[in-house]
Structure formats: structure tokens, C-alpha cells
Amino acid sequence: MDKKIxxxxxxxxxxxxxxxxxxxxxxxxxxxxxxAAVYTNLAREIVKxxxxxxxxxxxxxxxxxxxxxxxxxxxFRTMDYNDTWARDHAGITVxxxxxxxxxxxxxxxxxxxxxxxxxxxxTRRLAETKTFHKDVEVVNMQPFVLEGGSIxxxxxxxxxxxxxxxxxxxxxxxxxxxxxxxxxxxxxxxxRILRLENGYLQGDDTDGHIxxxxxxxxxxxxxxxxxADSTDEHYEExxxxxxxxxxxxxxxxxxxxxxxxxxxxxxxxxxxxxRLPATYANFLIINDAxxxxxxxxxxxxxxxxxxxxxxxxxxxTGIDSRILLKQHGSLHCxxxxxxxxxxx
Length: 344
Description:
Elements: E1 5-6, E2 14-20, H1 32-46, E3 51-56, H2 59-65, E4 74-78, H3 86-89, E5 92-96, E6 99-106, H4 109-112, H5 122-128, E7 137-145, E8 152-153, E9 158-162, H6 177-188, E10 192-196, E11 214-218, E12 221-226, H7 235-247, E13 257-262, E14 268-269, E15 274-275, E16 284-286, E17 289-294, H8 299-310, E18 315-320, E19 335-339
Parallel strand pairs: 2-3, 3-4, 6-7, 9-10, 12-13, 17-18
Antiparallel strand pairs: 1-5, 2-19, 5-6, 8-9, 11-12, 14-15, 16-17
């Protein structure tokens, strides 16, 4: 008999969230105090609801930054790493016949754009340091390249992704789209793959991670970025993406309830002269709460109310995430959740 595999949705009860802490050896060095403050604010919200795994190169420094936090709920793990985007280098948990298993996919710096040799070892080292329960198996998924930000699950057998990311150069380009979909179905026990052909954000260097564009809020609801300004460079692509989402159907054949999130105000990196990928879709679902990025705009309140309507029984908290955009990511990108039964 085939084993039953489920990729739990992000709203599944969680045991912990992983953050990989910024330090002077990472690209955050020029703005370290500012970005560490964002991580500290995020950590404080997480430990109100569950445990926190803090991957760091100096436990003393991480503790100094986290003064006043409940350290009984923090698991410190010291190791070397390249960067801090835990969403993409952390393990991905599935349930295999109801038992949690952690998949350790290849992380190669978003298609070899950045060094990732140390990041690619983090999940293995967390297992070696007994961060996970002893009966939780960590499975090496080489050679398949997959980042957590590239897939969304409704927990019922639907995977939402984009057409461009997983098949991009230096990821899995040796596979065609149909073969990639077959792999995703086999890995995650998926019944179907919903693949967005359209949608992008200027300044995104992930080749189109789904967590910047469209997110499951429950099995029947998708929040997505909507651009209402026809003069904006994103308008045509995001309108085409919206049309795709309207055409998608739930597993029981009904249209999805769609939650349009406002397009964040333009934020420009003056040094590089590029628009940064600010998006309200990059929110993090944790136990009884949703933590969302704020960008110092009146649209923050609008997006928060939209998410509150989508998550009526969860507390919605905003954290100013503008500094995270300096490295082309946002709040969801820096965190990875682990379901109940995974973390010690």
C-alpha cells in the first residue's frame, strides 16, 4: 500500500519557527543594527505563541539582541552559514503516514546567484544537534533544488507555485515543467499543481517565489498582490495573474475566495537605482497569529484589515520590514515554521 504524504499548510499547528540570525559575516553587515532590530521584533512575536529556533554564529550576541525575551522558549544553535533567508534554506516538513519527516532539498543560492554552501548544511546540522525529536527523519532530497518560498500548500493536496522558479537556470532546468510537476506530486502527495504563468515583482531575485505574489489563507481562500495603477510597470503582469487566480478552482470545483492585497508603495534602492520587491503577500502564519510586513505607508493599515478579514480568529501584527528589502526579501522570507511534533 502506498504511503500517505501530506504537505501541511502554514496554518497547521506549529512547534517552532526557525530564524537564521544576521551577523557581521553576512550581507547585512552595513545595516546590522537595523536588521537585527527587525529580527528581534519578529522573535518577540513568535515566542508569544511557540518556540523559536535561533541559528546563530554567536549565542552570546544573539542573547544580547534578544534581551527581555523568554529564553525558555528559544533554542540556540551555533554554526556557520552564508546568509539568513531561512524560508529557503530550512527543511520542509511533510507528514508521512501521519509522522513528520523533514525534507532537506538542495539550496544553491537561488540558482547559484549567491554562495550557499554553508546554508545548504543547516538542516543537517540542526538534526545532528538534536533540535528535532529523535524519531523525526531528515531525508536528503538531492539533486532536486527547491526553496520553501517557491511553494504553497492548502494541506488538502493542492500545491500553488509559479511556472518560472523551479525550472529556472541552475535549479532544475534538466527537467521540463511536466516532470517538475510529477516530482512535486510524488514528494508532497499532491493531487494537483496550480501553476501561475504570470506575475512578478521588480527587484525580486528568486525568479518568482510564490510567497511574494499569492498565498493560501485557508483551503478555499487565496490572498494576492493586486496592482490598481495602470501606469505601474507591474500592472499588466499582475492583472494577468489575477485572471489566472480567478480561473482556478478549489478541489470541489468552486472559485476561490480571493483577497486582493494592495500593491505596496514604490521603494527605491538609491544606491543600486532599482525598485525593491515590497509585498504584503509576504506574511507569516503562526499559532493563533499572523505577522505581516509593514512598509511605512498608509497602505499598511489597508493590507492589515484585508488579512484580518481573511484570518478572523488570528491576531494580526505588523513589523516594519523596509530594511529587509535591501537584500531583496521581506518578512516571510526570513522564517520557516515546523509543525507540531517536530521540534524538541
